[in-house]
Please model this.
Amino acid sequence: MSDTASRPTGPAALLASPTVFLMTLAFINWLGFASWSALLNNFAKEAAGFSGADIGILQSVREIPGFLAFTAIILFWFMREQMLAYVSLVTLGIGVAVTGYHPTLGGLMLTTTIMSIGFHYYETAQQSLQLQLLPKKEAPRLLGRIAGASATAQLLAFGSIAVVWRVFQPGYIVVFLVAGGLVVVLALLAWLVFPRFEGTVPQNKGFVLRKRYWLYYALTFMSGARRQIFMAFGGFLLVERFGYDVSATAMLLLATYGINTFMGPALGHLVGRVGERVTIQLENVSLVVVFVGYALASHGHFAGWGVFVAGALFIVDGVFFTLTLAQRTYFQKIADPADIAPTSAVAFTINHIAAVFLPVTFGLIWLRDPAIVFYIGSGVAIVSLGLAFLVPRHPAPGAETVMSPALPAAAE
Model:
């Protein structure tokens, strides 16, 4: 029998595709997390009576599992990344489902921790799977497609919540419960229908920290710091300063991920075309603009247009966040293939070092002046922009930075 005749076709071919598998799991993950995110700020403000300090505490608690993501290396000793991804998605769904039953600071800390364990361990597993299963030359394009699938899930979540909330006004308990239950069901279905996927190189089973990966670690740390400022306080500014309700917040997120459904693949192509160096620079320039704009909006510098400017900046940040995939493809190009799984876990912890203390600290700064929070965020983005200039145009082992001794002429 010929090779062509033995290849699966139709639905079987889709299920055998690593890209389809990764897109499906990304869809499930972001369906759950987006549903939680769309409701959180309003639920915290209206049902639990949160202040800026409270939301900072909650966001710090949410990031503790991300900080502990390096412990996934221990789980990899007896659990494949694919199985960890399934278990993590079920945990995420359970955390989302029970959130509406606990409208207190203590209750939200508990349910957020459950949700966050699932989300962060899934992200650790999926990053490892992506870099192992996707070919280097095609990785930016395929990661863009996966980002598009994630955006589609968020589009569905935010759109459904916006419509259901406006038409039926079902209450927080029902929406959290339905969204979380759907994630659990879809995760179990994915476990049943997809085959086992394996990378081409067995992964190292210990903790991996290599000196030559230092720039990747630094970019990852700064990315985590600036992202947490946006996640913890960008949406909260819209609710507290400009009075966005559940429907308005969901509609804003709906616009963001409606754009990303198409822009995700396009931005993946962009990374493949211009390279990681230019992409990381572009992302950080956009963040400087966003943070300064937020600071000015919080002080009312845009007069009656502030509510629209803040919403537009929220969308811009959400779209350009897709460009962080360039950091992953940069690492894929410089890494020993056997280091991908353990380094993905370690890098996820590095990404969340600032996230553990930053939201609660900045929550106190917020009480004094929200603009200070966003000006600091712009400073973080400027430092990250400086690091981006150290990325070679053609990263490779031995050519990890522009200062690498073995840097080929083409990478300068």
Observations:
- Residues 18-46 form the longest helix (29 residues).
- The domain at 17-194+203-411 is CATH 1.20.1250.20 (Growth Hormone; Chain: A;).
